[in-house]
Amino acid sequence: MQIKELQESKQHLRKYIASLKSSYEKTTLLDFSGTILKQLEGTELFRQASCVALYNAIPGEVQTATFLEKWYDKKQLLLPLVVGDDLRLLPYEGIDSLKPGVFGILEPADQETTIPETDIDLIVVPGVAFDRQLNRMGRGKGYYDRLLSTLQAPKIGICFDFQLQEMIPVEPFDKKMDMIITEKEVITG
């Protein structure tokens, strides 16, 4: 598949997933989010991890706010901060430690404290779509692909079941997950 066709295929899939997402009530997606995060808590990867990189959800993603509050005083949690074209992972110290970032997503206000990447035991990743071969498709800006290319920690993609496709278009720089969790199943390699 040519690069142009691949990009068009990804754009088409992003629109398709957005249309599926819009057919669900926010409360339903919130319920699904709770189920997905309970599944995450049950994984050996999460239970063994002492330092976990997560994300602060935007509307339509698996919602993580309650999960962050539940775990930040039990495990070292990190959240991404957008810096130019890259993401930096910084400690999460509670809801009051956040401020709106570049895209209006809440990010850590303390941008000085950093954690060595080698301390990260697990990274939990959002995406627009995933497939059963553990591929992930993001929003097209490459933030997570660049971040994931530098991290050695296991990667868990979390998404709603309707975001899980049999196969998605992938490019060489797209990073595979080690596990994908939906409200209906857990997929491993």
Description:
This protein is of the alpha/beta class and 189 residues long. The chain has a single domain, classed as 3-Layer(aba) Sandwich (Rossmann fold), CATH 3.40.50.10420. 28% of the residues lie in helices and 23% in strands. It has five helices and twelve strands. Strands 3-2-1-6-9-11-12 form a seven-stranded mixed sheet. The two termini are 25 Å apart. The model has no long low-confidence stretch (mean pLDDT 92).
Ends distance: 25 Å
Reading the helices and strands in chain order gives: HHHEHEEEEEEEHEEEE
Number of helices: 5
Work out the count of structural domains: 1
Q: CATH H level: which superfamily?
A: NagB/RpiA/CoA transferase-like
Q: Kindly identify the CATH topology.
A: Rossmann fold
The CATH C-level class name: Alpha Beta
Largest sheet: 7 strands, mixed
Q: Which spans have pLDDT < 50 for at least 5 consecutive residues?
A: none
CATH architect. name = 3-Layer(aba) Sandwich
Strand percentage lies at 15-25%
Secondary structural class: alpha/beta
Mean pLDDT: 92
Lateral arrangement of strands in the main beta sheet:
3-2-1-6-9-11-12
Mass-distribution shape: globular
Number of strands: 12
What percentage of residues falls in helices of 4 or more residues? 25-40%
Rg from Cα = 16 Å
Catalytic activity: (6S)-5-formyl-5,6,7,8-tetrahydrofolate + ATP = (6R)-5,10-methenyltetrahydrofolate + ADP + phosphate
GO molecular function: 5-formyltetrahydrofolate cyclo-ligase activity
Organism: Parabacteroides faecis
Family: Belongs to the 5-formyltetrahydrofolate cyclo-ligase family.
